[in-house]
Amino acid sequence: METTPDAMPSEEILRLDHQICFSLHAASRAFNGVYRAVLKDLELTYPQYLVMLVLWEHGELPVKTIGTRLRLDSGTLSPLLKRLEATGHVERRRSTEDERSVTVRPTPKGASLREQAALVPRRIAAATGLTLEELGDLQSRLAALTAKLDAADLDFDPAAGCGGA
């Protein structure tokens, strides 16, 4: 018989080691530490690496699209793009059609990092100790979790239970 969170006693459900958010937070911090070491040679931070991944994949993009893709607001993304521009990795340009829109594209220096960056996912995968199948399964499950959280009805009635959790 499966135990659901609504059946768990309050003293148990409030334990830190029962919080999925903390497990994800701890894993994210561990990943950030590994990425910091792996990205050192590229002279990129993890958030800068994510921006470059999007630009290498799609080419020139509006800032708003980059923010949506990376789930970053403009207050976080703008300084990040300024730093990438200051290091010569990207170029920002105002749209000629809409002055409010700014596009970003990799410079030749930024584009040249792409080949070197191809080693990053391999090193990260090796650091996890997981097989490619396990990594794929984990990624699929996290994508499904993200979709469910994005669609979550936060006005649920806790007395009614967890609704299939």
How does this structure look, described?
This protein is mainly α. The chain has one domain: Arc Repressor Mutant, subunit A (Orthogonal Bundle), CATH 1.10.10.10. Helices cover 59% and strands 7% of the residues. It contains 8 helices and 3 strands. It has helices at 10-13, 20-39, 46-58, 63-70, 74-86, 108-117, 119-128, 132-150, and strands spanning 61-62, 90-94, 102-106. Strands 1-3-2 form a 3-stranded antiparallel β-sheet. A hairpin with a 7-residue loop joins strand 2 (90-94) and strand 3 (102-106). Helix 2 packs across helix 7. The longest helix has 20 residues, at 20-39. The protein starts with 9 loop residues before the first helix and ends in a 15-residue tail after the last helix.
